[in-house]
């Protein structure tokens, strides 16, 4: 780890102006991902800007739905009564993330910005297009068991590691960003993370001088009836091999609205909109669930070691939908 300065700030303007003027500076809240990357020399920052005093707090019901401040801790959101009762997939995704100790420290905004756990990215001894554009992607022919099968490119097959983002994408969440001029913009989370394409080093639409202020999840029947399932190598503190967030609005024995998103299989949280369309107007049944699951992985491009994810993802979608309707 290189030497760095530490600067606590009390206003968003102060924080964003530092980042605007010094591109090598980084914001820190919980620091649960950032410090790991710095210790491994994957990221090297000369200044850390502590944003914990900013007023980006609160878990509340508003006219737009559920509003979560970006500096709220994962554990507090996951255990909040409003979240568990009205947005259960969000609570389940949070409480299946990391360890209790990390959830007590990690912020919601930081969680959405966490970087991939691809071993080649996290080891500077290897080339990696995310760290050094144009250097190559050894994962293509190397150990790719945990990596993506959807949204990949010749430049990168690294998996987005998040749990929370999968549930939020499924439930049409919106991220509010604020820049150094104090101007805010709202970005659907579906558009927040970027596909790698030829520029895998750019992972989100957030600009260098922007901060995440809050996340808003619209109130909806499919949000109230939602569920998150995570499949992993061990029962706790492991990243998803495959995960699925689902939500259904069922009235009169028919599905009026459906939401499906996948984790552990995409280079970004993967919304399966084609699969959702197949469910609308159908009765909730094993047959309709299997058809939707097949559509959810259509276009997958597995590599040698992660071909199992195609079938596992389908089974996980079916499991999530069946458990939701049980």
Automatic annotation (TrEMBL):
Residues annotated as transmembrane: none
FAD-binding PCMH-type domain segment(s): 1-222
GO molecular function annotations of the record: FAD binding; oxidoreductase activity
Keywords: FAD, Flavoprotein
SUPFAM superfamilies documented for this protein: CO dehydrogenase flavoprotein C-terminal domain-like, FAD-binding/transporter-associated domain-like
Superkingdom of the source species: Bacteria
Pfam families linked: CO_deh_flav_C (PF03450), FAD_binding_5 (PF00941)
Protein's name in the database: Xanthine dehydrogenase family protein subunit M
Organism of origin: Hymenobacter aquaticus
């Amino acid at each position: 780890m290189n030497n760095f300065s530490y600067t606590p700030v009390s206003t968003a303007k102060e924080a964003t102006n530092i980042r605007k003027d010094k591109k090598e500076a980084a914001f820190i809240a919980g620091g649960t991902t950032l410090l790991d990357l710095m210790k491994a020399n994957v990221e090297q920052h000369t200044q850390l800007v502590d944003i914990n005093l900013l007023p980006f707090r609160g878990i509340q019901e508003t006219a737009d739905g559920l509003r979560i401040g970006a500096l709220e801790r994962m554990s507090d959101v996951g255990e909040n009564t409003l979240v568990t009762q009205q947005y259960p997939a969000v609570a389940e995704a949070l409480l299946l993330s990391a360890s209790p100790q990390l959830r007590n420290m990690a912020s919601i905004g930081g969680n959405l910005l966490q970087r991939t756990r691809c071993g080649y990215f996290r080891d500077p001894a290897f080339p990696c297009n995310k760290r050094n554009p144009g250097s190559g992607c050894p994962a293509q022919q190397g150990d790719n068991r945990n990596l993506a099968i959807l949204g990949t490119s010749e430049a990168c097959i690294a998996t987005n590691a998040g749990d929370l983002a999968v549930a939020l994408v499924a439930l049409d969440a919106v991220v509010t960003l604020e820049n150094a001029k104090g101007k805010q913009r709202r970005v659907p989370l579906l558009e927040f993370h970027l596909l790698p394409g030829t520029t895998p080093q750019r992972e989100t639409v957030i600009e260098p001088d922007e901060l995440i202020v809050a996340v808003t999840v619209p109130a909806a029947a499919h949000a109230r009836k939602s569920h998150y399932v995570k499949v992993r190598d061990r029962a706790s503190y492991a990243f998803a091999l495959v995960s699925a967030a689902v939500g259904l609005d069922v009235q009169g024995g028919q599905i009026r609205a459906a939401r499906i998103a996948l984790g552990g299989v995409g280079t970004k949280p993967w919304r399966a909109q084609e699969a959702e369309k197949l469910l609308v107007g159908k009765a909730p049944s094993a047959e309709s669930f299997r058809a939707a699951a097949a559509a959810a992985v259509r276009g997958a491009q597995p590599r040698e070691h992660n071909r199992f994810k195609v079938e596992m993802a389908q089974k996980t979608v079916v499991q999530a939908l069946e458990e939701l309707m049980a």
